[in-house]
Design brief:
With 274 residues, the protein is of the alpha/beta class. It has 9 helices and 10 strands.
C-alpha cells in the first residue's frame, strides 16, 4: 500500500478534517453529531494520532475504513507499530500514553499494528477549491513536492515491511511525523509566547492575542507558511488553542481532554448548492 494517496473529490457531500483525537472516540462522535455528519454522503479525514491518552484508542483505529473515515499515520501510530515490532521500543510508546496497547492480547495488538501500517503517511484530496494536503507534523522546506519526493524514496521499502529504525524510513519519519518546524516558527516568530516544542493550554489567551497582531507583521515573515505545490495543508501534532490558519497552513491539534476542550474539526469541502 502506497505511503502517498490521492483522493478524488466528494461531489455528493461534505469533507471534514479533524486534528489529533488521541483516544477520545466519544468526543469525536459528539462533534460529528453536532455538524449532522452523514456517513452516506460525508467524509472525515484525520491527521493522525488517533491513539493513546484517551479511553478508546482501539475503537478509533477500528473506525478507519479509508472510505468514509480516513487517516494518515501519526507519530503515535508509528510508536505503536515500533513497540509491537521491537520490544526495545515499548518504553517510548508506554511513556507517551501507549500502555493500553500492551494490555491487549498479542493477537489484537497484531491486528491493530498491521492495520495502521497500511495507512498513508500523507494524502492529497481534491476539492472544488483546489487540492489540499494532509500530513501529521510538518512540511519540509515549505514544499509539498518535497513531501512527495521523500515518500517516494521509501514507498517500496515500507510496503516490504521495513521497520521504523530503517535508516531511509527514519529519515522520512522525522520531518513528516515528528518535527515541529512550522509550528515552532508560528510560536517563536509570529505569535509569542511559546516553547520550541509546543505551547501549553495555559497560553491560550496570549496565543489568541498574538493572532490578533498578525495583521501588523510584515508580509515576508509569512513566507514559510505558503506551502508550494498544494492549495492548503492540514496538520496536527502540536497544540494550538483553536484551529489556526496562517498562509495556506492549517493547524488543528486543539484537544487535550481538559474540560471545555473541543477537537479541531473543520469543513474543507461542501457540494455546491443546487
Amino acid at each position: 500500500m502506497s505511503v502517498y494517496w490521492t483522493i478524488g473529490q466528494n461531489t455528493e457531500g461534505r469533507d471534514f478534517v479533524v486534528g489529533d483525537v488521541h483516544g477520545y472516540y466519544q468526543q469525536l462522535m459528539t462533534q460529528l453529531d453536532g455538524v449532522d455528519f452523514d456517513p452516506a454522503r460525508d467524509r472525515l479525514f484525520c491527521v493522525g494520532d488517533l491513539v493513546d491518552r484517551g479511553p478508546d484508542s482501539a475503537a478509533l483505529v477500528d473506525m478507519i475504513d479509508q472510505q468514509v473515515y480516513f487517516s494518515v499515520l501519526g507519530n503515535h501510530e508509528a510508536m505503536m507499530i515500533a513497540g509491537f515490532e521491537d520490544p526495545a521500543d515499548i518504553r517510548l510508546h508506554f511513556a507517551n500514553g501507549g500502555e493500553w496497547f500492551y494490555e491487549l492480547p498479542r493477537s489484537r495488538q497484531q491486528q491493530l499494528a498491521e492495520k495502521v501500517r497500511q495507512w498513508p503517511w500523507a494524502m492529497e484530496i481534491a476539492t472544488a477549491e483546489g487540492a489540499i494536503g494532509l500530513v501529521h507534523a510538518d512540511v519540509p522546506d515549505s514544499s509539498w513536492l518535497e513531501v512527495k519526493q521523500l515518500l517516494r524514496t521509501i514507498d517500496e521499502r515500507w510496503e516490504r515491511g521495513a521497520s521504523l529504525i530503517d535508516r531511509a524510513v527514519h529519515a522520512v519519519a522525522q520531518p513528516l511525523l515528528w518535527r515541529r518546524g512550522l509550528i515552532t516558527r508560528l510560536y517563536q516568530e509570529l505569535i509569542g509566547p511559546g516553547e520550541s516544542k509546543r505551547a501549553v493550554p495555559e497560553h491560550k489567551q496570549a496565543f489568541l492575542e498574538g493572532l490578533g497582531r498578525l495583521s501588523r507583521i510584515p508580509a515576508e515573515r509569512f513566507s514559510p507558511f505558503s506551502v508550494a505545490g498544494i492549495d492548503g495543508v492540514y496538520m496536527g501534532h502540536s497544540y494550538v488553542p483553536s484551529p489556526t490558519t496562517v498562509g495556506n497552513c492549517h493547524f488543528l491539534d486543539t484537544f487535550r481532554g481538559e474540560p471545555g476542550d473541543v477537537l479541531g474539526l473543520v469543513c474543507v469541502s461542501a457540494p455546491a448548492e443546487k
